[in-house]
Every structure is written in C-alpha cells, then in structure tokens.
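Lecture 7 notes: from sequence to structure.

We start with a single chain of 379 residues. Read the sequence below before looking at the structure.
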Amino acid sequence: MSQDPSTSTRSSPAALLVPEPRAGRAQHAACVLLAVCFVVLLLTGEPLMSITHRACAQLAALQLGVLLKGCCCLAEEIFHLHSRHHGSLWQMLCACFPPRWHLALLLVSGSAYLDPQEDDGHSPRLTLACLCQLLVLTLGLQKLSAVEVSELTESSKKNVAHGLAWSYYVGYLKIVLPRLKECMEEISRANPMLRAHRDAWKLHILVPLNCDIWDDLEKADSNIQYLADLPETTLTRAGIKRRVYRQSLYVIRDKDNKPRPCVLEFASPLQTLFAMAQDECAAFGREQRLEQARLFYRTLRDILSSSRECAGTYRLIAYEEPAEAESHFLSGLILRHLQQQQREEYVVHEEQPLVTGSVELSLQVSSSDLPQPLRSDRP
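Now the structure, written as tokens:
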C-alpha cells in the first residue's frame, strides 16, 4: 500500500516553487482598514450626521464612475450586438453594467446631494464628480494591477495553463494511468528487477518551470538510460483508428552505479508554453511563461488528486534548473523522489500492519443480558 502523492504535496520541494491559490486576505485587510478608518473618524469628534453625509457623497461619486464606465463600454458594445451578444440587448447591458447593486447604492447615497440643508446646489457637485470620473477613465488611471489581473484570471480559470492541464489529463493521463500498474505487471515478467521496486510503479512526470523540455532524456543526463517501452494502449479516438498510447521505462543510476527503474516522461504541454514564448504573435514573455507553468503544475496536481482512478499511479516532479549547469542534476532529482517514495511505502507498512489469515479471531459473546465490562480480564 503506497501513500497518495497528494498527501505529501504541502511538504514537497515543489511547494516552495509553486504558489498556492490566494486566500482572500486582501478582502480581510479591507475590512480591518475600514474599521480603523471608522474609529479614526469617531475620534475626531465630528458629528455623526456630517460624517454620514460626506461618506454618502463619496459613495455617490464612486458609483457615478461605475455607471459612466459602463456607458463608455456600451458605446463600443452596441457595434457588436449580434456578433458578441447574439442580438440580445439585455445580455449586452448585463455585460456593461455588472449586477453589483451599483445603481441601488447610487440612488441611496445620492440623496446626500439633495440635502435641503446645504446652501449650494447639488447640480454643480454632480457635474464636477462626473468630470473627475471621466478624467480618470480618459487617462486610464483605473487599470487593474498585476496582482488583480492574476487573481482574476486564476479565479475565473481561463488561463492558458488551465486549458493545457485539463487537455493533458482528459486526452492522455486519464487514459494511461489507470492501466499503468497492469502494464508494469506485464513487463515485469521479462524484467524480474522491476518486482523489487514496486514503490516506483508510477508515471513520473517532470515539470520544468522554465518549460525547457528535452526530447531525448538520455541526452539530458547520461545517468538516465532507456530500458524498454511499456505495453501499448490502443484506442479509436477522435476519428483516429487504433491510436497508440505508450510510456517508456528508464533506468536511473546513482553515484554507485546502482540501477533504479522508473517510468519517466516530461509534461508535454509545457512545450506549447515554450513555443508561445518564442512566437511574437502570442505576446508571451518569460514572466508570463513562468507564471503559467506554475499554474499548470498546480492545476494538474489538483485535478489528479481528485481523480480516484489515477490515485497512486503518478508523481509530479516540479523543479527549476540550477543557475550553474550540472551534468547529473536531473538524475539526482529523480533519485531523491524515488527514495522518498520508498520511505513513504515503508512508513505506511510500519504504521498499518496487515492481519494475516493465520491469526484466529475469537468472538466473546455474553450469555447474559446485563451490561458487561469491556476488558476481558475482568470477571
């Protein structure tokens, strides 16, 4: 019985390379700062009605900006009514004015401008608020920060990485992983050495965060040697007759030249990210590539950890290339993961010993209807 790779995700080296999803702490910080500002206003000694009036005026100005921004968007979207919104005016309005109670809040807080106790008229102030908001929109001062864009794209799950991870899982891993141990059992008949390393009967997927993938693993590291191909999985899929899926078995040699078998391959979708970074049409820089590679790893990890049929059949190995080239960096990295798997296998067997059939279980059934002590050594 082996430990699920997902259970050791948080303690793995990849946890230091791949950031976890944001936990909404910015919203919590906003609540704390809101309370602080409220306390500061109360300590100034200004009347509560005056504070409320000014707060409503500020809210009205902000909501005016939202409505004006929606009107500007509407001026563009009206030309795409049929191509983008299927001719639906309501769909276009909802796209330009998201339902976040902006209009209702504007009507409530806008009452501050109609306060009869004010000496000056409200119209100049409304016009001035509109002028300021339109100036902000024109100068582009309301653009989202890089953090906001990143959080928005991650929460909406519309990144390139999300699509690549799901495609990799549905189109490949979901097909080959459930049959992996069966294939290893078959190939081990001709290679008895494999039976001594059952803890390594998993598909080890290399995820280099720089997306630089070697087509030939033996050229990447001389301590990695090709051994054989696993039995093929053949399916008719997407109009392709007898499509073939197969994995390669390698031998990893340590510094003492001891061999360790391992089913190994790179995460092929990373080649797409690398190619996009090389193509000017994709407008994909190095930082974007690194961010998408991390997101790809995290998304794939979450998908596989929730898949019952793939449990215990894979291991994701995310890493960053060292600054100085090392001839055996990759083999060393893989060996460390293999050693960790062996320790996990040993710990599970130690903590959960199996009861064999040689142990006879005796059932003690009381002949009395009265409550009996739990301990059998008591009369």
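The longest strand covers residues 259-266. Keep this in mind for problem set 3.
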